[in-house]
Amino acid sequence: MTATIPNLPSLYDPFTTEAKWQKFWEENQVYKADPNQGGEPYCIVIPPPNVTGSLHMGHAFESALIDVLVRYHRMKGRNTLWLPGTDHASIAVHTMLEKQLKAEGKTRYELGREQFLERAKQWKAESGGTIVNQLRRLGVSVDWTRERFTLDEGLSKAVLEAFVSLYEEGLIYRGEYLVNWCPASQSAVSDVEVENQEVNGNLWHFRYPLTDGSGYVEVATTRPETMLGDTAVAVNPNDERYQHLIGKTLTLPIMNREIPIIGDEYVDPTFGTGSVKVTPAHDPNDFEMGKRHNLPFINILNKDGTLNANAGEFQGQDRFVARKNVVSHLEADGFLVKIEDYKHTVPYSDRGKVPIEPLLSTQWFVKIRPLADKALEFLDQKDSPEFFPQRWTKVYRDWLVKLKDWCISRQLWWGHQIPAWYAVSETDGQITDNTPFVVAKSAAEAWEKAKLQFGENVQLEQDPDVLDTWFSSGLWPFSTLGWPEQTQDLATYYPTTTLVTGFDIIFFWVARMTMMAGHFTGQMPFKDVYIHGLVLDENGQKQSKTKGNGIDPLLLIDKYGTDALRYAMIKEVAGAGQDIRLEYDRKKDESASVEASRNFANKLWNAARFVMMNLDGQTPAQLGTPIATELSDRWILSRYHQVVKQTANHIDNYGLGEAAKGLYEFIWGDFCDWYIELVKSRLQTSAEPASRRVAQQTLAYVLEGILKLLHPFMPHITEEIWQTLTQQPADLPQTLSLQPYPQADINSINPALEEQFELLIGTIRTIRNLRAEADIKPGVKVTANLQSENAQERQIITAGQSYIKDLAKVETLTIADAQKSQTFAQKKPQKGLKFIALTIVGIVFLRVALAIPDAIDDVPFFGTFFEMVGFVYASWFITQNLISAQARQKLWGKFFQPTSQKELPEIESQQPQAPEKAIAGVIGTIQVLIPLSNDVVDIEILRAKLEKSLSKAETEVNSLSARLSNPNFVDKARADVVQGARDALAEAEKQAEILRVRLQALQ
Asked: What CATH number is associated with residue 119?
């Protein structure tokens, strides 16, 4: 069958191509994992985005990084699973639905729990897949058949198993503690749902009078309303100013409650007045002091942020209204000392967008110490998991050491309802802090347990609260694989291989997963943790909703294509864990970074089109593996295998940015800009057939290898080109995604040759630059004189002189020994001396050879034998090595030529010409001279142009010098303006000097 001529469109259309292959991969289940496939497993579970979310730059960056790893290891032959899914996001969904109800004039309580949950499920079915569809646009190679949701049946079963098990082991308990409370959502929130914001506030100073009337103590606070719940004032026991007051009492203003003065080392004597008010029910530090000193805990807040009956006359007032009224009251009573402006940090609820309140509340908690200690044991004894970069190990360890018990209950309806049933018949039909309860995996099981404890007439009511979403997310690496059932997926793919995540959730998610996994599976949930940085905006700032500086990845995908965005982000990574900065023009919604990657895609596309048009319709397989004979072929194959080796090494060590940059430089520079140009003349139909065949083989071989190397980074364009290059059948094509990743052929790597070729490339580049400086037209061929004292360099450029002539448009090329340029006339005598010297060496060699038999003449038979052998060998040596000039050069090179140059020919220097007018450049120790004449360039026009530019530069120098000599400017102008003038002067002087040198060459 005759191969058809492959054809790529003249222009690359990323949008059509990307949609086509995303559909193909998914419809054909290319990335469906098979636990029976065999091979070393490689598994990543996706960090589940919130089901309410939309794709932001953090998602795009993280997904691109993961996809590179997964695609790479899949092509390396590993049994790969990338498992996708989403998190139910309790607070986000709850808040969104309540806003909808408020707009309809309803509340969730009016709607009822069942109808509220039905509404949530309906929303999930209709709109909850937005971010999943957006992830599909990134071309992620996940197994969509295994997509999971934290509220689906299997994961809900895992949550029940984990909760009940921990409770039965005494590691989950119910108690009254201080929690972060969001008055807007009226729920406890985790630390990760709290965003600290710096605000301009006030610091109020008040006097609390001593009960005995002997004076007062001054305290300061940023939350005056909380003084209504004060139960003590604390001082440092070592503070001499207050030591005599410890044990006395104060009368709390407004409330007229007698409270003690206590000594506690927590108090910083140097901060403020050295005395602090203590409100144990409304401040985390005060809570700890309250426990240490057995103080009363007085809660003054309702769950909606209003004040309760414990606030006296301020009951029912919003907390911020009460703040103003409390201050006015204290001022009227003469207790207000002063009000200071004060900038401080206030914790805000990320979902409710209001300041959170530390609130004393009865909640469910996980006893964290046993779980954290188990994770610490894995880290300290087995270095598991291993962090990349390694510096994050300490951060992770510090979190595990400092962890306190974890509040896991949330006062919401959307989520995993806590599997605890209260015997409300024991507390008048109400759930109170003291209502007894049973914990079970189902209502039926709870009923059986309750009957045994409370009798047949017991009335049960399930806890209305739901679990913190981080509880189910903590089980994610193994619950998604089927735990608590012992599934084949769990047996094959667990523990997972790598977790890719941001540093900001090491505690909130990473630590919770390792603690849960260590407890329930006896293993860490992943081998490696690859911590990536943030995608910063164009000003180097963190992107956030608050700042309004986010960059929409979908907008950039629509403008430049998915591959371009993916590659732009990954190429910016300089070392694992580093933040990246994405260039962005907000006025035009354009990114120079992403545009550069799109241009790279176009460069590859055009190079592939050229290659395929010159393969005579043959595929790489049909052409076969090249056996390189020419210098350029050996060079590109060496560079290719070097890049294969380096890319694999980078990815294996999570150096994804370094891998991307290395591929960019090789593909754009070595392959497209140099090798393709070098072989164009060999691809002509009139070229020597054997050379043409090797050129075709090499182009096809390297291009296919490039597509495989680049595929993990830019999957769509590489798939499209590869399909055409290999001429896959339309009805049943193979996919590049499942092709083996290239392996480096160490024997093809020749560092010495690569170094030599760099000199050739540098020489060509220098000649091209000189042509541009002299305004020599592209079609005009020039004469070039290359001079070097270094014999190795002369050998290199001699071996590649055809490339220099071809690519630099050189008609006549002279290569000379710069050191001999003044003594050229002595060349022939030197050649005679060299012949005489070699002849003497030959005679000495012959004499030594003939002397050997004399030494063993006395030995019968051996003497005559060795004498004959010595004479024959000496005669052969002289004949082979000394008679002809070519033989003498070969012998001389064996002893004196550097080993790195053995494959380059020995040359004799040509006589350099000394042109009257020339321009010069230097590469290595090679001086490059291009003689100038009116045949090549109009010298007078060039001189006039240079003189005009020089005059302009000198005018600039004079102007800036005068400005900087003026004391009024230097002393009074801003420092950056003065420095800018100095920099401009230095640049102008440099330009003037360059122009003078160029003019001098024309004299």
From this structure: 3.40.50.620
Helix locations, 711-748, DSSP H = 715-725
pLDDT at 37 over 50: yes
Q: How far is CA 954 from CA 846, 949, 958, 961, 970, in A?
A: 72, 9, 6, 10, 21
Asked if residue 883 is part of any domain, the answer here is: no
Asked whether residue 498 falls in the same domain as residue 634, the answer is no
Q: What is the CATH classification number for the domain harbouring 320?
A: 3.90.740.10
pLDDT per residue over 767-779, tens digit each? 998 888 888 888 8
State yes or no: 99 annotated in a binding site. no
Is 620 in the same domain as 760? Answer: yes
| Domain containing residue 269 | 196-349
- The enclosing domain of 975 has a CATH number of 1.10.287.380
**Polymer length of the chain:** 1003
Cα 986 from Cα 971, distance rounded (Å): 20
- Domain annotation covers residue 123: yes
Q: What are phi and psi of 478, to 5 degrees?
A: -115, -25
Burial annotation 179-218 (CB, 10 A radius, 16+ → b, else e): bbbbbbbbbbbbeebbbeeeeeeeebbbbbbbeeeeebbb
Q: What is the pLDDT of residues 154-209, one digit of tens each?
A: 999 999 999 999 999 999 999 988 888 888 878 887 776 778 888 899 999 999 99
The count of other CB atoms within 10 Å of the CB of residue 865 is 12
Answer yes or no: is pLDDT of 549 > 90.
Answer: no
626 and 494 belong to one structural domain: no
The phi, psi pair for 174, rounded to 5°, reads: -115, 130
Residue 883's pLDDT is: 46
* Residue that wins the pLDDT comparison between 974 and 556: 556
Residue in 407, 403, 409, 418 with CA at minimum distance from that of residue 370: 403
Predicted TM-score of the model (pTM): 0.81
